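User: I'm putting together a teaching handout on how sequence relates to shape, and I'd like one worked example. Could you take Deacylase from Lysobacter soli, show the sequence you're using, and then write out its predicted structure as tokens right after it?

Assistant: Happy to. First the sequence, then the structure tokens directly below it.
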Amino acid sequence: MLSPRLHNLLDQGQAPYTTLTHPRTVTAHETASAVRVEPNHFAKTVMLKADGRLAMVVMPAAYRADLYRLSLALGGVPVELAEETEFRDAFPDCEPGAMPPFGHLYGMPVYIDSRLAHQEEIAFNAGNHTEVVRMPYREFERLAAPEMLWLAHMM
């Protein structure tokens, strides 16, 4: 079942989307493969601490966060990966590691790698490890209002 916050956002925002069900997966690559979505079109959510505050970074599954580049893009603030214990409680309606890429639903900023903006559609975890939401990128951008940055490099 979709995260209740995500479900409300998509329905109230009248956004077109489809839900894809798949066998339980853990990594973004596994999930993209399970739903037959190219890793460049699957948006993974990476949790960071930027200047000590939780932030969400959304990037193609085929990429890895470049913390140095992100720090520069954010004005030189310290940036590090967040431990699951630091963010687990921030997503009470989601399974750990399956948060949808809508930071504002959880009171945190969301930064998106600009390579996703060139995709017609994106897919992302729906708050659990067995469902994915697929929607037009422009609709995602309208609802999430992310800050666009070049954040990642190929793995």
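A couple of points you could highlight for students: The radius of gyration is 14 Å. Strands lie at 18-21, 42-50, 53-60, 63-65, 79-81, 110-113, 121-125, 131-136, 147-149, 152-154.
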